[in-house]
Amino acid sequence: MRAARCDRYGSPDVVTVWDVPDPTPGAGEVLVEIRAAAVNFPDVLTVADKYQVSVPTPFTPGSEFAGVVRSAGVDVRSVEPGDAVMGSAMTGAFAELICVPEGALTPKPDGLDWISAAAFRVTYTTAYHALVTFGGMRAGDWVVVLGAAGGVGTAAVDVARRLGARVIACASSEERLAAVATLGAEVGVSYDLQDLKARIKEITGGGAQVVIDPVGGRYAEPALRALAPGGTFVTVGYATGEIPRIPLNLVLLKDLTIRGVELRTLAQRHPDAPARAQQALAALVSDGMRPLVSQVFGLDDVAGALTSLNDRAAVGKVVIALGGAC
Ligand SMILES: NC(=O)c1ccc[n+]([C@@H]2O[C@H](COP(=O)([O-])OP(=O)(O)OC[C@H]3O[C@@H](n4cnc5c(N)ncnc54)[C@H](OP(=O)(O)O)[C@@H]3O)[C@@H](O)[C@H]2O)c1
After folding, report:
1. 282, part of any domain
2. Around Cβ 300, how many Cβ atoms within 10 Å?
3. Is residue 277 in a domain?
4. Could you tell me the residue range of the domain that residue 195 belongs to?
5. CA-to-CA distance for 115 and 234, rounded, in angstroms?
6. How many Å lie between the centroid of ligand 1 and the Cα of residue 316?
7. Tell me: the pLDDT tens digits for 236-248?
8. Residue whose CA lies nearest to ligand 1 atom number 29
9. Which residue positions does the secretion signal occupy (predicted)?
10. How many angstroms does the Cα of residue 153 sit away from the middle of ligand 1?
11. What's the domain count of the chain?
12. Does the beta carbon of 171 lie inside 6 Å of ligand 1?
């Protein structure tokens, strides 16, 4: 099969396409023909060896995909050849085939095409848990989404609006905010040009109820300072590369809550939460919710797709199409 490979750590252009042996499913594993794979920021970090988990080279990057089951190893009960599935893995998705444990797969909802299915699972599940499972968001709340034009950000804006929240989208340019406005964000704040805390306070009156932060760095503290008393700040990631340090007196003074989302390990601590999220998201997909996909690349240009995220150029999701998916 053809697969994107990273044989040394570095910037996205170290990734090239190789011919490698087809994987074979072991017990409990499923072999999937990939139709589309979505790019997530951790893929950029993994190639650069800057992710929390270091992956030995050479490896095939890519952590999220949609495709068709080709075969299954012994003891696999939940899927069979021909099933349309979506899945996630630490690596391996930027390839024609992937082998994963059956638990890594969920059925592809009928309404999603391959590109949307590949782009959906990681960001929308993360956004749902950030907003609802940990953020405690309710209809009518003011929700601030940092990095709102990115993958997690666009999903958070979309889900929050559909669940009845009022969304303040924050991004680095008016052009990126215009893209997010199509998802229903009520107000946009250009956080590199405007005073983030002052602007959120001005818009909300008493402050926001929830902040969703996939960005970190210098944006986190002013957003937290703009929470209303009793509000919740949810830390999701650090696309800036900088983990913020928050003065704890801010939490004390306004009875704030800071929560963190970690999708990979969430089910271990909250066993009921994944099923609740999947059910809620399936209902929203039936109502027409689709991820915002702005760029589709071929397998030969995985480096270009990773560069788009690395350079802050992507709006919403970037997808690699395989097997005639687009
Ligand atoms: N906790 C979890 O389980 C979980 C799950 C998924 C993702 N994440 C994390 O969430 C973060 C965002 O992921 P994503 O898929 O949404 O990424 P993304 O699509 O690349 O979006 C990140 C956004 O951050 C903003 N940004 C600000 N400073 C940046 C910088 N120096 N470099 C790059 N982007 C910068 C960019 O928007 P502007 O230019 O408009 O500011 C960009 O759109 C990542 O750190 C990822 O690892 C965590």
Report:
1. no
2. 12
3. no
4. 122-266
5. 28
6. 10
7. 999 999 999 999 9
8. 240
9. none
10. 8
11. 2
12. yes
240 lines ligand 1 (CB under 6 A): yes
Atom 17 of ligand 1, residue of closest alpha carbon: 41
Is residue 184 in a domain?
yes
Cβ(254) to ligand 1 under 6 A? no
Q: Are 142 and 108 found together in one domain?
A: no
**151 and 76 in one domain?**
no
Residue 267 phi, psi dihedral angles, 5° rounding = -65, -25
Instruction: Pick the atom of ligand 1 nearest to 235's CA.
Output: 1
Question: How far apart are the two ends of the chain, measured CA to CA in Å?
Answer: 20
CA distance readout (Å), 240 to 8, 60, 105, 168, 312: 23, 24, 30, 20, 10
What would the pLDDT profile of 273-311 be if each residue is shown by its tens digit?
Answer: 999 999 999 999 999 999 999 999 999 999 999 999 999
Task: State the CATH number of the domain containing residue 36.
Answer: 3.90.180.10
- 72-107 residue pLDDT tens: 999 999 999 999 999 999 999 999 999 999 999 999
Longest dimension (CA), the chain: 60
pLDDT at site 323: 76
Mutate to test the pocket of ligand 1, among 52, 152, 242 (most ligand atoms within 8 A of CB): 152
